[in-house]
Design brief:
This protein has 14 helices and no strands. It has one domain. It is globular. Helix 1 runs antiparallel to helix 3. By secondary structure, it is mainly alpha-helical.
Amino acid sequence: MEIKAKEVLMFWVFAISIFVNMSLVKGDIILNNAITMIAYQHISEVEWIKYMLVPTFIFCAIATVGFKFTFNNILKNYVRKGDIQPEKFESLSKEDKKHLALILAVVVLWATETIHGINGTIIVIIGTLIMYGIKLLGKQDIKSINIGLLIFLTAVFSIGAVMKESGIATIIFSNLIVLFPKTFSLKYVVIMAVVSIILHMILGSNITTMSVIIPGLMSISKGVANPTITMFTIFVSICAHFVLPYQHGVILIGEGSKYYTSKTTLKYAPVLTLLTILSILFVYLKWWKLMGLT
């Protein structure tokens, strides 16, 4: 039972990180930036925080309750063996302080891209080169690059583009138009969220799903729903929800590292599906309206 509890707890470390990362533009450097680019909605870091920080933290709390409910029988039998003794660390050397200062500088510059205007990619590249120059990084660190994940991301970006260019996406959404009411309402949002979730389950990847769904739903909802609400509804529906590990890169990494199996994600999926839809309706949508999005 202890091993199972560890698996469940490790799964939650990865799952909650996904939810928290939704609160900031740079929380997930790939997904969060991709959706604004695909939707052609320029959202600054401040605006993103305004619309997503508070409701996402509320969602995290709700999702945690759902997690506890789902795995309660396993977690209640978990017993930690012995006290954990904190390790004693030596004070930082002068060289360590220089390394720490460099890392902090790179992180701060990257996080404040919207203020100084320097592309975050350039900052990371320059920072990495400097780290190699001062021997903070070495040849052995190249092994840390996940080539398989890079190939996977390239593939999922390509799948979405192929579906759009081949006309498959157009065919799909031309048949979905009849499902949507002519006026914006809770029913409209529910349909938008459910369509996003179902297509995500079929297409698998977040990026692939976003690149296919966003143009279609943005077109359908034009003149009916606020484009920012449409974008964020799709974002939460896709990024906060998963059934199997391959449907979210972060969950896939944890499963690939043998921290947990697909059985764990499948057990949490029904609760997460319900909580995602309810949170969009009664947490996110209410907050967006409070912030002036109508």
